[in-house]
């Protein structure tokens, strides 16, 4: 037994002294792991980092971000490989294969993203440049792939926006998966902003009611390239050029299509450690198409920002997300129902007019609209100066892109059933847009890998916590023996598992539960399965059908902060698969821990050991904390 332990110790020491190199490149055959916090590439001047960035609860994207303004989990991300398919916070990794393919794999070993490149030369490497470009080179230095060619929502200085590429906004402030707004070259070679919603799409910049030459755009040059220079000039081949307010300064800049559909040029103010807007494409955010979804009106005020409201007689379709807009609360069958009109002052719904009538009075327009099934309402405009006509009536088949603007000078007449006509517009609920899309957690389950690597993970854990390691190593002998025993047990258990052929669904989300949820899961804390010093353990079934052991802590003296710190510690251990803690609950005096429930016999032995080892480690960490407080 002594032999293997010495070997182990030696290899542990070697691993611990091996500093997790913060480098700007990755060699063939190596990977970056989501489990190791320091596994990032850092550009040589320290401006950019590339690695796994959190995008939700236990959800990560492989990304490139600015290291300034100072940030931890909320950095300014400039590129993402897998924005629409985030990976698990455990066991996911980015690997550069020997054959030159860069592959991002999720915990269950599913390939989420790959560059699909190949090289017969073995010495490929991935390098993060000071420009923010992540480049895959072969041994001759040729470029196999670069992140600059597949932008996400941001263009960095000297990065070209080319034909067939586009910037796509985030879904919301808190959700960086693909949203509905695109910056791209349209088929006329003009750099445009497009709203590409679930049902309809339309260009909103340059102003669609103006001709291209009227806004100074040329349609002749089909090379379709736009680029931001380091001094702050953005220019495109359609003859569109703008300069930043602080043009000339050599500072960090980025051009981003934000989640609200506006394109902004940002400059980094290093003194105040924040981004400032040095140019924007759009001033009136409510006029950006699709802002509030169909049948609703956007209004904005300096005090409240942008707001969406359903028009009278309509209700919000999805209470978490305004982009779904509103749906009618009535059924206006074509011939039958009695209908009338409500007018909305200074309001416009852009587009979707199927007919225009001139020199009609309001009454004549109403009659026209009543006669036609597809008429949802009309806009009435009076132009004193316009010749030869003085009034315009636009019949609408859909009510989209609605906005309210004081002094707009035209009204909307909405067609509604007679019974709804008494509605007051002011009574309609309005919600702030800014928190429209809620961040949800990644809920994916996996079949646990047969050949689990708890030991490797443990070594990794130690090697990234060198302080911990050095203080804990002294008393670590007994601990290592335990670990070895456990390791062998796992091996034999795995073999029996293979023979038995049962699958274990491994949960991946570590989350906070509500007390009500756990009360429901345990059927009112009925089935007690164990009792210890700290509390009572109950068996329960979670809403996703996972069977859990729920430990209800008795110790009321535990402060909330202390409890959370403890959970955090166990959570980190859970990270390396030693104990499967799924989550916790802290609500008033209730403090609970939710563990994986071990039912079959082969597990019982190991689970006991797992908990034992877990306790050892948390004690160890606590001691280390104390030590670091003393020194
Ligand atoms: C990140 O969060 C910290 C603390 O919440 C805040 O001080 C900082 O300004 C944020 N950074 C960015 C880039 O949003
Ligand atoms: C298109 O624009 C590029 C870059 O500005 C320029 O080099 C090229 O000559 C232009 N082509 C035409 C046909 O104008
Ligand atoms: C580009 O714009 C400039 C002025 O900004 C104008 O003088 C020039 O004629 C334009 N070129 C084209 C091809 O439209
Ligand atoms: C429309 O009406 C205005 C006055 O109301 C009149 O001056 C104009 O001639 C009319 N146009 C046509 C084409 O009838
Ligand atoms: C709607 O928003 C306005 C401010 O824009 C606010 O004064 C009003 O109370 C809001 N109405 C509701 C029902 O929330
Ligand atoms: C982000 O939005 C997308 C699209 O609506 C949704 O499918 C996804 O679950 C959201 N992600 C998070 C982390 O909330």
Automatic annotation (TrEMBL):
Write the protein's name: non-specific serine/threonine protein kinase
Keyword Cell wall biogenesis/degradation: yes or no? no
Q: Which residues cross the membrane?
A: 467-489
Q: Which InterPro entries match?
A: Bulb-type_lectin_dom, Bulb-type_lectin_dom_sf, Kinase-like_dom_sf, Pan_app, Prot_kinase_dom, Protein_kinase_ATP_BS, S_locus_glycoprot_dom
What are the subcellular locations of this protein? Membrane
Which organism does this record belong to? Hibiscus syriacus
Give residues annotated as binding ATP: 551
Query: What GO annotations for molecular function exist for this entry?
Result: ATP binding; protein serine/threonine kinase activity
Any one GO BP annotation for this protein: recognition of pollen
Q: Where is the Protein kinase domain positioned along the sequence?
A: 523-631
Q: Identify the Pfam families for this entry.
A: B_lectin, Pkinase, S_locus_glycop
Lineage summary: Eukaryota, Viridiplantae, Streptophyta, Embryophyta, Tracheophyta
Could you tell me the EC number(s) of this protein?
A: 2.7.11.1
Listed CDD domains: B_lectin (cd00028), PAN_AP_plant (cd01098)
Could you list this entry's UniProt keywords, alphabetically sorted.
ATP-binding, Disulfide bond, EGF-like domain, Glycoprotein, Kinase, Membrane, Nucleotide-binding, Receptor, Serine/threonine-protein kinase, Signal, Transferase, Transmembrane, Transmembrane helix
Please tell me one Gene Ontology term that the record gives under cellular component: membrane
Hey, what's the signal peptide range on this chain?
1-21
Q: Identify the enzyme class.
A: transferase
């Amino acid at each position: 037994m002594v032999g293997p332990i010495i070997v182990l110790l030696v290899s542990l020491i070697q691993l611990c002294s091996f500093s997790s190199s913060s480098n700007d490149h990755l060699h063939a055959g190596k990977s970056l792991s989501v489990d190791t916090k320091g596994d990032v590439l850092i550009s040589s001047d320290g401006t950019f980092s590339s690695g796994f960035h959190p995008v939700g609860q236990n959800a990560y994207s492989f990304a490139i971000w600015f290291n300034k303004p100072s940030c931890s989990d909320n950095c300014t991300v400039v590129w993402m490989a897998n924005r629409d398919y985030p990976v698990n916070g455990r066991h996911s990794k980015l690997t550069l294969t020997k054959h030159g393919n860069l592959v991002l794999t999720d915990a269950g070993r599913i390939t989420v993203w790959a560059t699909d490149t190949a090289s017969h030369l073995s010495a490929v490497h991935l390098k993060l440049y000071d420009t923010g470009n992540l480049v895959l080179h072969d041994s001759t230095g040729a470029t196999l792939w670069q992140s600059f060619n597949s932008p996400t929502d941001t263009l960095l200085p000297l990065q070209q926006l080319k034909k067939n590429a586009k910037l796509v906004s985030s879904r919301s402030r808190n959700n960086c998966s693909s949203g509905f707004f695109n910056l791209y070259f349209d088929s006329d070679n003009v750099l445009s902003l497009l709203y590409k919603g679930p049902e309809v799409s339309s260009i909103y910049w340059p102003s669609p009611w103006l001709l291209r030459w009227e806004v100074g755009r040329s349609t002749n040059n089909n090379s379709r390239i736009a680029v931001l220079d380091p001094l702050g000039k953005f220019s495109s081949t359609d003859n569109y050029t703008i300069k930043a307010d602080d043009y000339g300064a050599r500072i960090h800049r980025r051009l981003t299509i934000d989640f609200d559909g506006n394109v902004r040029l940002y400059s980094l103010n290093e003194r105040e450690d924040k981004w400032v807007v040095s140019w924007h494409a759009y001033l009136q955010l409510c006029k950006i198409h699709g802002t509030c979804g169909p049948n609703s009106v956007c209004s904005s005020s300096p005090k409240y920002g942008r707001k969406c409201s359903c028009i009278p007689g309509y209700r919000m379709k999805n209470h978490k997300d305004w982009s779904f807009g509103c749906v009618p609360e009535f059924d206006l069958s074509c011939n039958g129902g009695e209908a009338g009109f409500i007018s909305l002052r200074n309001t416009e719904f852009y587009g979707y007019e199927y007919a225009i009538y001139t020199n009609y009075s309001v009454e004549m327009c109403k009659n026209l609209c009543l006669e036609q099934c597809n008429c949802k309402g009309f806009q009435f405009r009076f132009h004193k100066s316009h010749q030869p006509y003085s009034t315009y009536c636009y019949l609408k088949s859909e009510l989209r892109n609605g906005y309210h603007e004081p002094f707009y000078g035209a009204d909307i007449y909405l067609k509604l059933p007679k019974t709804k006509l008494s509605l007051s517009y002011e009574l309609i609920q309005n919600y702030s847009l800014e928190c429209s899309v809620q961040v949800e957690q990644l809920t994916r389950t996996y079949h646990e890998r047969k050949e689990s690597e708890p030991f490797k993970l443990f070594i990794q854990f130690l090697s990234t916590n060198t302080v911990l390691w050095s203080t804990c190593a002294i008393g670590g002998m007994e601990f290592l023996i335990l670990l070895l025993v456990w390791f062998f047990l796992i091996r034999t258990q795995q073999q029996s598992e293979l023979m038995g052929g049962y699958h274990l669904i491994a949960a991946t989300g570590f989350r906070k539960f509500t007390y009500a949820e756990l009360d429901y899961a345990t059927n009112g804390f009925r089935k007690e399965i164990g009792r210890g010093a700290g509390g009572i353990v109950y068996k329960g079934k979670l809403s996703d059908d996972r069977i859990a052991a729920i430990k209800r802590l008795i110790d009321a003296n535990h402060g909330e902060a202390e409890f959370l710190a403890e959970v955090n510690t166990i959570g980190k251990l859970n990270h390396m698969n030693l104990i499967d803690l799924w989550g916790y609950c802290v609500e008033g005096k209730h403090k609970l821990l939710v563990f994986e429930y071990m039912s079959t016999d082969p597990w019982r032995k190991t689970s006991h050991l797992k908990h034992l080892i877990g306790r050892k480690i948390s004690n160890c960490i606590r001691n280390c904390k104390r030590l670091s407080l003393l020194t």
